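Title: [Solved] Phosphoserine phosphatase 3D structure

Original question kept below for reference.
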Amino acid sequence: MQPSNTELILIRVTGEDRPGLTASVTEILAKYDATVLDIGQADIHNTLSLGILFKSEERHSGFIMKELLFKASSLGVSIRFEPITTEQYENWVGMQGKNRYILTVLGRKLSARQISAATSVLAEQGLNIDAIKRLTGRIPLDEGKTDTPTRACIEFSVRGTPKDRIAMQERLMQLASELEMDFSFQQDNMYRRMRRLICFDMDSTLIETEVIDELAIRAGVGEEVKAITESAMRGEIDFTESFTRRVALLKGLDESVMEEIAESLPITEGVNRLMYVLKKYGYKIAILSGGFTYFGQYLQKKYGIDYVYANELEIIDGKLTGRYLGDVVDGKRKAELLRLIAQVEKVDIAQTIAVGDGANDLPMLGVAGLGIAFHAKPKVVANAKQSINTIGLDGVLYFLGFKDSYLNM
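Solution (posted by the thread starter after getting help):
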């Protein structure tokens, strides 16, 4: 119970931001030995919104408010006071036990329509927005003046328990498709803030091609191999079966072709920035690919990647034999490898991330603490909890909570 001789007061300060404003307000509270129970501040285009909930003795509250009014006037800002009852405060304290989530909305641009649609889903599910942050830098009015592809990302911190998590996920996926935006809905816990291992598919994820298709073109069987590849990525045929059939068609190809392809691999938009930041912040990085070790190792050298697991082509007398060595890295094997690397690195599985585009990536996307479908096939998007379809691979960083201001290269 609140002692009868104390008062709870919420103050709201709005106006042009300036250095020392918060210090001036709290200095007055300190003068009367007030207790700050909550404090929050936001700054949008140099316009401040500051809220402070404090407790003070009744005999001091009048003096506090009088001095705050004078200070606000001298600083050119507005201030409002609201008394808070004991019941209101206890209800607020009780809210601390509720689940917390982060909804990240991402796209080339974010319009009012997109933001309205996403926040309406939160409201329908009975979730309350606590805070809103823009993670991307400011978008220039004349986008033609910059060579950098635009991207916009807003992060909503929400509290509560969704009424129907599955229905919510489905609705967000529908909106993502209709309104050309991406989203991630994650529980806001210590694992989200402490991701440590990230595993990537290679072909059509880190690079904008399927290497086996490039090899097939050189071997004169491009269309035949491409058709098998696409069918496998859609999940229509078993990956190992499709892999065996495609590799057999490469028989007789000169191994020098592999070096030629490696040196001209089309790197996916955002990979350079993504790798720089992941290495800078100490993430362990792995390639888990149904493609070929030769190309994975090329990327490993280029970006300092820690682990590469892919398939080894058999080469005799400088020619591909149409066979491969060892077991095929299929979907099941990718998930096993993710678990194994996590154990080696002493990383909880909840701290892992997996990124891929094909049906053979679904097992590792499901095992990882955060599974992200990237420019993926419809079956993969439908089964993944997070997806990125509108921007480059560095969009992963926003799902991890990075702001552009952290990411200067």
